[in-house]
Structure formats: structure tokens, C-alpha cells
Design a protein that fits this description.
This protein is of the alpha/beta class. It folds into 2 domains: 2-111 and 278-294, ATPase, nucleotide binding domain (Nucleotidyltransferase, domain 5); 112-276, Nucleotidyltransferase, domain 5 (2-Layer Sandwich). Helices cover 47% and strands 24% of the residues. It contains 13 helices and 11 strands. The protein has a 6-stranded mixed beta sheet, sandwiched between helices. Strands 3-2-1-4-5 form a 5-stranded mixed beta sheet, sandwiched between helices. Strand 6 (132-138) and strand 7 form a beta hairpin. The longest helix is centred in the first third of the chain and has 20 residues, at 53-72. It is globular, with a radius of gyration of 19 Å. The relative contact order is 0.15. Pfam families: Ppx-GppA. This is Ppx/GppA phosphatase family protein. It comes from Lacihabitans lacunae. Residues 26-285 form the Ppx/GppA phosphatase N-terminal domain.
Length: 296
């Protein structure tokens, strides 16, 4: 069986096709195809409030490519989810309707809470019972914060703070204050807090960090890694550090969110699992298939 997840974010759109593997009843997903393309929808939406004609055309072209790849791989089921940029665009619903009419593909505009829930479903597998965690998931348009006591999520909140939104200077100061207050009100001060970072930017920063035996890094190590990256111009990051262009120009804006959340929560260290929204989408696709099988 093969399934696919398509995540249309504010910065890039990703598709992952995976085989479903079963080993003595334990299910896992093996990646067989992964494609990422920088649509940069946030640039349109955070400045103009809507997605322009050229960007809509790129969405349709990209989804056409994704559809052909899924057909070649004989994918059994897939799910498309779009986050902050498309859901905030005043013409977002109209674009989804045209995509459905022209391509026969359904785009689901998910809320920040739903996004956090889908990521939670895969992140929880990485957690230990006796640790308090602050999960920081940074996208181009929004940041989702989740608090865990062991494997139990206690609360969560979505904020309109993201790497592209900061780059476009579209984050008001009071939004930062709201995030800081939420962390202060919800993160306990009497116990150690471990941060979990998800998102492409923190994964890239982590490549320049020597982690401990548990795969964790301190805030100081992360800041040192970022200083190294900032020592290069955007063009040098692309050519010398081999970053994608749409990563090279937003990485320091994204790091501001991760590092601020760690400081406000007094997190002692962070680990970065190789998981994100696309993995949560894959899990939901699989679970939906299984429910359909049960009702046959």
C-alpha cells in the first residue's frame, strides 16, 4: 500500500509518498518520494490579503505534477492540507473550489489547532513519560506551541508569527507579547523543560550542531550555529552552504521564534525529530483507510 501527504504552507509546498510497512503488527511509513517547491504564498497573502493570479497558476501546475507522480506510484489514498497563508487569503476558498473543479483534487484548509493536533499525533511517539516538553512548530505564517507532560498534551496555542510573516514585517509587537505571556502563564517554573523543534529551518540549524548522546542541543549551541550561518550572505548560503533559496533568506527569522520561546520557557535544551505536518497527514490518511476497511 502507498499513501501520500501534501502540505501547502506559507513558504513551500511539500509532497511525500510513502509505503506502508507492517512488522509483526507494528506500522511504519517508508518514504519513496519527496518533492518540495517554494510557492511563497505568504508573500502575497501577508502583503495583499489574497493570492494573485500568477501564484494560483503555480499552485495548479504543482498539484498537477503531484497528481501525476501519485498516479505513477499507484498511490492508494492521499490528503492535501493547507495552512495559514491559504486559509487567511480572502480568495483561498475560491482557489480551492477551482482546483477541485479543474483538477479533481480537494484542498483542506486546516486551522492552527488542527495543524497542531496532526503534528501531535506523530510527535507523541518520541516523548518520555517523566519529562515536561514545549513543542515549537514554526511555519512561514504561524507558530504552534504545544505543552506536554510526558506523552500527554496539556494545552496548545497557535500564533500568527512565522518566518515569512516576520520577513515581510507583518507581525505586530503585541503578537510577540501574547506569545510570551502564554508561555509564562502555562509553562511551569518548578521543573526542567525540554524544547522540541519542528520545521525545516530548525532542522537546518541542527545540521551545524554537535548534539549530546540523547540528540539534544543547548540554546547556546543553537545560537552559535546560527551565528555561523549569519556570517554568510544569503547568496553565499545558497552557493556555499547549499541551502534552498527560500530557506536561506528566512532561516534567521524562524530562529528568532524558536530561540525566544526557549528563553521565555527557560528550556534547557532542544531536540529536533525528523517529523512534521506531512507525517501527521500520512498518519491520518492511513487511519482513514483502516476505518474504511473496518466498515466494509
Amino acid at each position: 500500500m502507498k499513501i501520500a501527504a501534501i502540505d501547502i504552507g506559507s513558504n513551500a509546498a511539500r509532497m511525500q509518498i510513502s509505503s506502508v510497512l507492517s512488522d509483526e503488527g507494528k506500522i511504519s511509513f517508508k518514504k519513496v518520494e519527496y518533492v518540495r517547491f517554494a510557492l511563497r504564498l505568504g508573500h502575497d497573502v501577508f502583503n495583499e490579503g489574497k493570492i494573485n493570479y500568477e501564484s494560483e497558476a503555480r499552485i495548479k501546475k504543482l498539484l498537477t505534477v503531484y497528481k501525476l507522480l501519485m498516479e505513477l506510484h499507484e498511490v492508494d489514498a492521499y490528503l492535501i492540507c493547507a495552512t495559514s497563508a491559504l486559509r487567511e487569503a480572502e480568495n483561498g476558498l475560491n482557489i480551492c473550489e477551482r482546483v477541485k473543479l479543474e483538477l479533481g483534487m480537494t484542498i483542506n484548509l486546516i486551522s492552527g489547532d488542527k495543524e497542531a493536533e496532526m503534528i501531535n499525533n506523530v510527535i507523541v511517539q518520541e516523548l518520555k513519560d517523566d519529562v515536561f516538553y514545549l513543542h515549537i512548530d514554526v511555519g512561514g505564517g504561524s507558530t504552534e506551541l504545544n505543552l506536554y507532560q510526558g506523552k500527554i498534551k496539556t494545552t496548545s496555542q497557535s500564533f500568527k508569527i512565522g518566518s515569512v510573516r516576520i520577513m515581510e514585517n507583518k507581525v505586530p509587537k503585541d503578537m510577540w507579547k501574547k506569545m510570551q505571556k502564554w508561555i509564562g502563564d502555562n509553562v511551569p517554573t518548578h521543573q526542567e523543560v525540554v524544547a522540541i523543534g519542528t520545521g525545516g529551518n530548525i532542522s537546518k540549524i541542527f545540521e551545524y550542531v554537535e548534539t549530546d548522546t540523547k540528540g539534544c542541543a543547548t540554546l547556546e549551541q543553537l545560537e552559535t550555529a546560527l551565528s555561523y550561518i549569519k556570517g554568510y550572505s544569503v547568496e553565499e548560503r545558497i552557493n556555499k552552504l547549499k541551502m534552498n533559496p527560500d530557506r536561506a533568506d528566512v532561516i534567521e527569522f524562524a530562529s528568532e521564534i524558536y530561540f525566544s520561546a526557549m528563553k521565555w520557557s527557560k528550556s534547557v535544551k532542544m531536540f529536533v525529530p525528523d517529523l512534521g505536518l506531512k507525517d501527521g497527514i500520512l498518519l491520518e490518511v492511513y487511519q482513514t483507510l483502516m476505518q474504511q476497511e473496518e466498515h466494509k
